[in-house]
Specification:
The chain has helices at about 1-10, 10-35, 40-50, 60-65, 80-90, 105-115, 125-135; strands spanning about 40, 55-60, 75, 95-100, 120-125. With about 150 residues, it is α/β, with parallel strands linked by helices. The longest helix has 23 residues, at about 10-35. The radius of gyration is 20 Å and the shape is elongated.
């Protein structure tokens, strides 16, 4: 035990780094275990859109949205999502698909929507990048910004 204490005192930066990495790993494991939304591939997203009355929320910025988006998607940038929750209240019981550029912003939006009481939240893995490039699914590149 004395050797551990000696090591920690002599290598405090390494010890602190180990503690931080351990904390972040445990936090990530808890987040993954407790998340209430699911990740779906673009093909499963299309299946959900065809099977039920699914709402697609695109959390990219308006400039990104206008370049190309999923048909009938509602553009609500991630930063404005909490303010737009009352407008989305009517879709609480419907399946909600969330898309962003590459799938990183969608997870944050999924957390916000599940905390707001949305029951069926699905994040499109890979975002619009996977939708367009990997799966070659159609996009709508012209039109007005829906909100």
């Amino acid at each position: 035990m004395e050797r551990y204490l000696e090591f920690i005192l002599n290598h405090y930066i390494l010890s602190l780094a180990l503690a931080v990495v351990t904390y972040l790993l445990i936090q990530e494991l808890f987040d993954a275990a407790l998340k209430k939304f699911s990740a779906v591939s673009p093909l499963l997203a299309v299946t959900k859109m065809n099977d039920s009355d699914t709402v697609v929320i695109d959390v990219r910025e308006p400039e990104e949205f206008l370049k190309g988006h999923i048909e009938n998607a509602i553009n609500t940038p991630l930063g404005n999502l909490p303010a737009h929750l009352p407008k989305l209240e009517a879709h609480k019981n419907k399946p909600v698909l969330i898309a962003c550029q590459n799938g990183t912003r969608s997870a944050s939006a999924g957390k916000i929507l599940t905390k707001a009481g949305f029951e069926q939240v699905f994040v499109i893995t890979g975002g619009m990048q996977a939708w367009e490039n990997d799966y070659k699914l159609p996009i709508k590149s012209t039109g007005k910004n829906k909100s």
